[in-house]
Amino acid sequence: MAQAAGISRQFVKAAMNAPFLDRLQERNLAVRWRKADDEVALHALAHAHMRLVMAVAMRFRHYGLPVADLVQEGHVGLLEAAARFEPEREVRFSTYATWWIRASIQDYVLRNWSIVRGGTSSAQKALFFNLRRLRARLAQNGDAGQSAHEQIAMALGVSVADVEGMNARLSGPDISLNAPVSDDDSASAERGDFLVDDGPLVDEIVGARIDGERRLRWLREAMATLSERELHILEARQLRDDAKTLETLGGELGISKERVRQIESRAIDKLRRSLLAMHAEEAATARV
């Protein structure tokens, strides 16, 4: 088992041969380390609980990470537990240390299982580490699909969307954007080639929106200088999708279509002069 797990035989042998501590020995070592910074006591306390570290680490071996690294991270959690342990509470050190060992290993798994960082909230952690187990249990009971997702979401206090997203993440490994789209060696296209967006850049979109709002404000200010008839003709001819003809407007206003054309031309010229007069510098920059 040691070779398969990537842990040296010497390490496993030393951990298995470490003496078990009774409650009094454990407490004395913890007191010496906490009150006198006795590193010999710390080493003896940690060494006696390496079996516990290995046992917890083996529970996470199916995530595909080196077991030796899991054991190392578990040892970090063990030392953290030793630093925080309060012997006067009359709690066995192994009971207290198990939580810190598991937490340290879980953090390591979350950081290294995928290059895509997942959620770090307690609910997301619970979902990551319990989804497979809950899904397998529900499958044995005949529950699957959306029904299973809803039950898992309710049990862990997360949304169904979170369960579906985590299920998708756990269903397959990370895929490089430089990987070919097909298995054909002659194919040159990579997955990243299909992520290129041919649309305008974000700064261009924002710039166009700001310029558009500014020009609209200018136009409204300039249109306020027009007479009621000029404004009516200009709106009917230039600002509507179904623009009216000169003849139609002439009939509505009781004037000839040529007169309508003259008023429209005069209104456009008045707008241009008003814009240049009110915003000469800005208009030149924006090429209005």
Task: Offer a quick outline of the entry.
The chain is mainly alpha-helical. It has helices spanning 2-5, 9-17, 23-36, 39-48, 50-58, 67-84, 93-112, 122-140, 145-156, 160-170, 202-223, 228-238, 246-253, 257-278, 280-286.
Walkthrough of the structure:
The chain is mainly alpha-helical and about 290 residues long. The protein has three domains: about 1-110, Four Helix Bundle (Hemerythrin (Met), subunit A) (Up-down Bundle); about 120-170; about 200-285, Arc Repressor Mutant, subunit A, CATH 1.10.10. The protein has helices spanning about 1-5, 10-15, 25-35, 40-50, 50-60, 65-85, 95-110, 120-140, 145-155, 160-170, 200-225, 230-240, 245-255, 255-280, 280-285. It is elongated.
What is the number of strand segments? 0
Indicate the overall shape.
elongated
Cα gyration radius (Å): 37 Å
SSE sequence, one letter per element: HHHHHHHHHHHHHHH
Strand content: under 5%
- At CATH level 3, the topology of the largest domain is Four Helix Bundle (Hemerythrin (Met), subunit A)
Secondary structure elements and their pairing?
Layout: H1 2-5, H2 9-17, H3 23-36, H4 39-48, H5 50-58, H6 67-84, H7 93-112, H8 122-140, H9 145-156, H10 160-170, H11 202-223, H12 228-238, H13 246-253, H14 257-278, H15 280-286
Helix pairs in contact: 3-4, 5-6, 5-7, 6-7, 8-9, 8-10, 9-10, 11-14, 12-14, 13-14, 14-15
